[in-house]
Task: inverse folding
């Protein structure tokens, strides 16, 4: 299955937080939506990282690719809102799920435990126990 990384998973990898080892095992050949990649850069900038673009680019150097967020994924993310609003998922969260859903073998990878029981039909790997 193709791992589609949520921003939380990428940040866990960069900052070596709990679950980073599980992300490291899956990063080669993985994807991250353009929306989530933007979110990673923004979070690094927000937290004063001296080189946010370069830090986010580390994930790409490890074998991840940035997946386009097309009209198809945009509609899917919007439609996920009603099914996930009780779990508080952001647009970035739903973008990750939409990109994973668009891949024949996609699986979302996140640090957010709330994704474990979403019932969206998208396989989810929560990196933290």
Result:
């Amino acid at each position: 299955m193709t791992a589609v990384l949520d921003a939380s998973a990428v940040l866990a990898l960069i900052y070596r937080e709990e679950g980073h080892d599980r992300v490291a095992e899956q990063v080669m050949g993985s994807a991250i939506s353009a929306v989530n990649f933007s979110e990673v850069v923004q979070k690094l900038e927000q937290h004063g990282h001296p080189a946010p673009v370069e830090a986010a680019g580390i994930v790409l150097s490890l074998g991840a690719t940035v997946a386009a967020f097309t009209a198809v994924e945009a509609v899917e993310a919007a439609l996920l809102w009603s099914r996930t609003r009780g779990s508080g998922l952001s647009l970035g969260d739903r973008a990750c799920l939409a990109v994973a859903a668009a891949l024949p073998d996609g699986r979302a990878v996140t640090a957010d435990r709330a994704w474990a029981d979403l019932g969206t039909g998208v396989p989810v790997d929560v990196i933290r126990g």
Remarks:
- The chain has one domain: 2-126.
